[in-house]
From TrEMBL, chain A:
SUPFAM superfamilies: alpha-helical ferredoxin (SSF46548), Nucleotide-binding domain (SSF51971). GO terms for molecular function: iron-sulfur cluster binding; oxidoreductase activity. It comes from the Bacteria. Residues 18-124 form the Dihydroprymidine dehydrogenase domain. This is Glutamate synthase, large subunit. NCBIfam families: gltA. It comes from Chitinivibrio alkaliphilus ACht1. Residues 138-445 form the FAD/NAD(P)-binding domain. Pfam families: Fer4_20, Pyr_redox_2. InterPro entries: DPD_II, FAD/NAD-bd_sf, FAD/NAD-binding_dom, Helical_ferredxn, SudA-like.
UniProtKB/TrEMBL annotation, chain B:
PANTHER family: DIHYDROOROTATE DEHYDROGENASE B (NAD(+)), ELECTRON TRANSFER SUBUNIT, DIHYDROOROTATE DEHYDROGENASE B (NAD(+)), ELECTRON TRANSFER SUBUNIT-RELATED. Keywords: 2Fe-2S, FAD, Flavoprotein, Iron, Iron-sulfur, Metal-binding. Gene3D superfamilies: Nucleotide-binding domain of ferredoxin-NADP reductase (FNR) module, Translation factors. This is Glutamate synthase, small subunit. One of its GO terms (molecular function) is metal ion binding. InterPro entries: Cbr1-like_FAD-bd_dom, Cyt_c3_hydrogenase_gsu, Dihydroorotate_DH_Fe-S-bd, FAD-bd_FR_type, FNR_nucleotide-bd, OxRdtase_FAD/NAD-bd, PyrK_electron_transfer, Riboflavin_synthase-like_b-brl. FAD binds at residues 62-64. Pfam families: DHODB_Fe-S_bind (PF10418), FAD_binding_6 (PF00970), NAD_binding_1 (PF00175). The lineage of its organism: Bacteria, Pseudomonadati, Fibrobacterota, Chitinivibrionia, Chitinivibrionales. Its cofactor is FAD; [2Fe-2S] cluster. It comes from Chitinivibrio alkaliphilus ACht1. Residues 1-95 form the FAD-binding FR-type domain. Binds 1 FAD per subunit. [2Fe-2S] cluster binds at residues 222, 225, 237. One of its GO terms (biological process) is pyrimidine nucleotide biosynthetic process.
Length: 461, 277
């Protein structure tokens, strides 16, 4: 079986794109998309679907696409995934559907993500969704990230009146405040949200569940029949090293929020951000890659990732690491910051690091990094960004009696469907699992929606 | 979204705005704040809820015009709307009946102090208040504080109102004349909080301070408001804004607050009015 090579998605030239917030990947043309779709073998037992956390009918949508039935392809995806424009851009397909694609054994797997994105972009804003007839029940959702949006979409499709409460002034969670425009344009997220609005979902921004109103109030006074909590894991962690409170030190969330949500990169934005010449980012995940590449786009001369293990262990997507490299990001691997050295105005000016080596495997099976004695070195640095993970946001759990959390502060769920220890309260996404992925958060939102329908006696089958 | 019901000047740079906010008015407690965005391209800025009426559905903010957002808001009219208003945020002040409570407020910090003093009074405490400012024009809410407090003292740097000197001078005198306090609350500019609380703590009075680090989201997401308290990083927006003054690392906070203006300079962007601060 001869396997034709995958059709690559055109990308902007690295040198030019590293200075703008325009999207890096340009999207397929129709011919490219159809050509790629035609490579699909239409397997009888499609392994790709096993790798998809929300079981999109991948061969079916690809078949429609190969026959240029773009709307039908879109409908098939939308059946299981309400944010295809988002997932087509940020899902780790190489670890999910694409890793299992049969074509991958002998050559390149189908570019499922690129095709999903094409179908979604092509149909963006095209469909007029109609509101479903009301079933007379209403559900509140706390948090408008992918978990909350997926839950809202699923319920609205079945005639439930849904109100999504969001603490910030924009809808979308990490998709809006975290992931930068060059990877996921805010307009793409906005288009998906508009579709939910057309389905009748009501959004209330600037509403902090647990503060503006408690869960009990929403249930008892406002008459919601159930509440889904999708508050995310946005509580940043900081390393315990000297200088960490210096000026010029940001959490990745603060840095990205200033740039992405508050648009600090744009002329006329009132939110300031320190535009460093030497940006150093601590961490090795997608968040770290987003931060370091943003540093370049704000005008840094050099931007460096400091990560304590090797590239092999980096949690970031291969594609993101590759894009970062192309754009000129330096990687200090097997290295860990020890201390931030400050100038006399209290700003960070250097990071003192130490080289690491991988020692014995620990309980998690990963080899533990250990410092190499006497190997300290310093990097010039005027913006230091911490991207070493986040914890659960505590606002909802602190303010809600009977809602149990685990040691880490994540909301405990008592079954696979997002039911919590408190009646009528469901949870899912990063607030339950800790920082994970968009698609897993969406899957959790949808599962909880199913449980809510069941518990409200609105079973579909 | 939030309509302006009233807006008035308390002094040249300090003004009071009353906003329609029924949800927030109903739940807010002393010590809590809101996050405001004045215009569509504006910043998110934190402001303490200085007063509220749950029945009438409004909250009041008292604001010092220091930079762009606070000035644009000052120039708005009754009937205008703020772009965004979210809250109430932060933890409420822990108010108990402890006996004799000392409330010390400086500058615009008198605004956040007002609801705290009111809550302590309502809880049955004897409330002694000392207000301080550079000059008499900057003493805000004098009548309000007079009504709430059992005793009220005023100190100005230039002696244009009350006594010439610092609140700490008055505090020292009150101690000398045999007064004792079970708890102190100090709210004002960070430098003032630092030095004032050193004195109250010295006198053995447990002291709370309301910290005002830079905030963005106010919900624990950005970490920008982190302060070191008892050697641990704490987020003022969800763990505070009030903390035990004895455990606060003041120099960290002071450095991070002053850094802000320097950031503006380093970026070489024009930040209108930074000169006035
Ligand atoms: C910079 C960055 C890059 C990433 N890159 C990728 C990637 O490439 N691929 C991928 O799959 N994943 C990526 N992730 C992870 C992914 O974004 C998250 O796993 C996902 O967004 C989690 O969704 P969620 O709905 O659980 O929470 P979030 O997206 O965190 O949304 C939670 C929302 O709830 C709101 N909220 C919180 N508390 C309250 C409250 N009390 N009341 C009302 N609203 C509240 C918050 O403001 C927020 O809007 C990235 C994350 C970051 C930060
Ligand atoms: C919990 C809390 C409660 C507050 N309550 C009040 C209040 O009741 N009345 C009042 O007048 N002020 C209050 N402040 C300070 C107020 O938030 C700042 O004065 C305001 O953000 C300045 O905004 P600006 O755009 O006008 O000024 P700019 O100087 O243009 O603002 C630039 C940036 O600096 C930040 N910033 C500057 N100074 C401060 C500061 N001292 N504290 C926090 N952020 C700062 C702003 O958030 C903004 O991001 C409070 C601060 C906090 C943290
Ligand atoms: S496994 Fe690959 S070839 Fe087979 S159906 Fe899925 S995408 Fe097509
Ligand atoms: S203001 Fe962002 S964490 Fe407190």
């Amino acid at each position: 079986m001869k396997n034709s090579p995958r059709i690559p998605m055109p990308e902007r030239n690295p040198r030019e794109r590293a200075r703008t917030f325009d999207e890096v990947k340009k999207g397929y043309t129709e011919e490219e998309a159809v050509g790629e779709a035609k490579r699909c073998l239409q397997c009888k037992k499609p392994l790709c679907m096993k790798g998809c956390p929300v079981s999109i009918d991948i061969p079916a949508f690809i078949k429609e696409l190969s026959e240029r039935n773009f709307e039908r392809a879109h409908d098939i995806i939308k059946n299981t995934n309400s944010l295809p424009g988002v997932c087509g851009r940020v899902c780790p397909q190489e670890e999910q559907c694409e890793s299992l694609c049969i074509l991958g054994h002998k050559g390149d797997p189908i570019a499922v993500g690129n095709l999903e994105r094409y179908v979604s972009d092509r149909n963006m804003g095209g469909h007029e969704d109609t509101k479903m007839p009301s079933v007379g029940r209403k559900v509140a959702i706390a948090g408008s990230g992918p978990a909350g949006l997926a839950c809202a979409g699923y319920l609205a499709k079945r005639g439930v009146a849904v109100t999504v409460f969001e603490a910030l002034h924009e809808i979308g969670g990490v998709l809006i405040y975290g992931i930068p425009e060059f990877r996921l344009p805010n307009a793409v997220v906005q288009a998906e949200i508009d579709e939910l609005k057309r389905m009748g979902v009501v959004f209330e921004t600037n509403f902090i569940v647990g503060k503006t109103a408690s869960i009990s109030e929403l249930l008892d006074e406002d008459g919601f029949d159930a509440i889904f909590v999708g508050a995310g894991a946005g509580f940043p962690r900081f390393p315990d090293i000297p200088g960490i409170n210096a000026n010029g030190v940001y959490s990745a969330n603060e840095y990205l929020t200033r740039v992405n949500l508050m648009q600090a990169w744009k002329e006329g934005s009132k939110t300031p951000v320190l535009k460093g010449q030497h940006v150093v980012v601590m961490g090795g995940g997608n968040v770290a890659m987003d931060a370091v590449r943003t540093g370049f786009r704000l005008g840094a001369q050099d931007a460096t990732i400091v990560y304590r293990r090797t590239e092999h262990e980096m949690p970031a997507r291969v594609e993101e690491i590759h894009h970062a490299r192309e754009e000129g990001v330096d990687f200090e691997l097997l290295a860990n910051p020890l201390e931030l050295l400050l100038d006399d105005e209290g700003f960070v000016k250097e990071v003192r690091c130490i080289k690491m080596r991988l020692g014995e495997a620990d309980a998690s099976g990963r080899r533990r990094p250990e410092p190499v004695e006497g190997s300290e070195f310093t990097l010039p640095c005027d913006v230091f960004i911490v991207a070493i993970g986040t914890k659960a946001n505590p606002i909802v759990s602190r303010s809600t009696k009977g809602l149990e959390t685990n040691k880490k502060g994540n909301v405990t769920i008592i079954d696979d469907w997002g039911r919590t220890t408190r009646d009528k309260v469901y949870a899912g996404g990063d607030i339950v699992t800790g920082a994970a992925t968009v698609i897993l958060a969406m899957g959790a939102g949808k599962d909880a929606a199913k449980a809510i329908l069941h518990d409200l006696g609105l079973n579909e089958d | 979204m939030a309509e302006i019901l009233q807006i008035s000047n308390l002094s040249e740079h300090i003004y009071r705005v009353r906003l329609v906010a029924p949800r927030i008015a109903k739940r807010r407690k002393a010590g809590q704040f809101v996050i405001v965005r004045v215009t569509p391209d504006g910043e998110r800025i934190p402001l303490t809820i200085a007063n509220a009426s749950a029945e009438e559905g409004w909250i009041e903010l008292i604001i010092q015009a220091v930079g762009e957002s606070t000035r644009v808001l000052r120039d708005m009219q009754v009937g205008d709307h703020l772009e965004d208003l979210a809250g109430p945020l932060g933890r409420a002040t822990k108010v108990e009946k402890v006996g004799r409570v000392l409330c010390i407020g400086g500058g615009v910090g008198i605004a956040p102090l007002r609801p705290i003093a009111e809550a302590f009074k309502a809880a049955g405490n004897h409330v002694t208040t000392i207000l301080g400012a550079r000059t008499s024009d900057l003493i805000i809410l004098r009548d309000d504080m007079d009504q709430i407090s059992d005793e009220l003292y005023i100190a100005t740097d230039d002696g244009s109102a009350g006594e010439k000197g610092f609140p700490t001078d008055i505090f020292a005198r009150l101690l000398d004349t045999g007064n004792t306090y079970d708890e102190a609350v100090v709210v004002g500019p960070p430098v003032m909080m630092k030095f004032t609380s050193l004195k109250t703590l010295d006198a053995g009075v447990p002291t709370m301070c309301s910290l005002n680090p830079i905030m963005i989201d106010g919900t624990g997401m950005c970490g920008g408001c982190r302060v070191t308290v008892a050697g641990e990083p704490r987020f003022a927006c969800v763990d505070g804004p009030e903390f035990d003054a004895a455990s606060v690392e003041w120099d960290d906070l002071l450095n991070r607050l002053s850094g802000y203006d320097k950031i503006a300079e380093r970026n070489h962007t024009c930040r209108i009015g930074t000169d006035e601060k």
